[in-house]
Structure formats: structure tokens, C-alpha cells
Amino acid sequence: SGLLSRLQTSAPTVQTLSSSKSFSQNIPSCLWKLGRLNHVAIAVPDLEKAQSLYKDVLGAQVSETVALPEHGVYTVFVELGNTKLELLHPLGEKSPIASFLQKNKTGGMHHICIEVDDIKAAMTELKKKKIRILSEEPKIGAHGKPVIFLHPKDCHGVLVELEQA
């Protein structure tokens, strides 16, 4: 019984999440709500090879290629059940993906996309909070819904896309 009593008295105290302050108490109320992760976008130098990896090797459901001239990209979506991957390939020389691939020859993560319930309210509030938005107005994104991009320097190095849910 000596060992057991020493273990019981020397065991560290662990505070559980349920007994600590709720995370939501620290979040200021907004006129808009952040929703679910819609997709993670990956820039790829060879779209067909990337499609083949996800479809033929990993067995994922992969969409057809769609050109989005307004954004300067070709897109392909890979369904993952709880979210998607968006494969991005340059469309034209002025494509932001072309410049990304010049710096990252083998490709890589380009941005994350999070849904919002009110993109206009989000834009207004984020501007007040000194978060730079990369366009004056939302553009129509790959899902046919309004999107905006937030400057990566204001988002800890991550390019964040917000999409109207």
C-alpha cells in the first residue's frame, strides 16, 4: 500500500477542457459566422498526373477539369467525404498559380477555403479589423458562389479564401 499511496499523492492535477472556460467565451460576437472548411487548395504543375494520383492510386472521386478564366486557373475537386481538395493549375500567363509554381516547382498547398454565412458582413468587419482583402468585391468562385481572399500576411502566412455558404 506504500507505493499506491505515493502514486496517489504525487499524481499531477489535470484540468479538463469541460471545467475550464469555454472557448466561445473568448470569441467576440460578429454579424457573420465562420462555417466549415470547404476545401484545401493545392497548386499542381501537372494537373493530369495529380488527378491520376487521387483517382487511380488513392481511389478518390475526382471531378472533371473546369476552367475559371476570371481567377486564371483550371480547377479539379477531389471529394474526401468531410471536405474537398481543390487541385489548381495555371490558366494563362498572368495566373497567380503560375507565379506560385515558379517559386514552388513541385507544387504545394496554396490556400484554405472556409465558408461564411454572410460574405458582405465578413468583408465589412474584417476591413475594420485591418485584415486586407485582395479584391474590392467578391468574385464568383469554383462553386458558383461569391468568394474573397484574405492577405496571407494578415493570416499568419496562410492565404484564406472565404466562400458564401
TrEMBL record:
Function recorded in the entry: Methylmalonyl-CoA epimerase involved in propionyl-CoA metabolism.
EC code: 5.1.99.1
NCBIfam families the UniProt entry points to: metmalonyl_epim (TIGR03081)
UniProt-listed Pfam families: Glyoxalase_4
Name of this protein: Methylmalonyl-CoA epimerase, mitochondrial
CDD domains: MMCE
Keyword flag Mitochondrion: no
GO biological process terms on file: L-methylmalonyl-CoA metabolic process
InterPro entries: Glyas_Bleomycin-R_OHBP_Dase, MeMalonyl-CoA_epimerase, MMCE/EMCE_epimerase, VOC_core
Stretches assigned to the VOC domain: 36-165
Entry keyword set: Cobalt, Isomerase, Metal-binding
Naturally occurring in which organism (per UniProt): Thryothorus ludovicianus (Carolina wren)
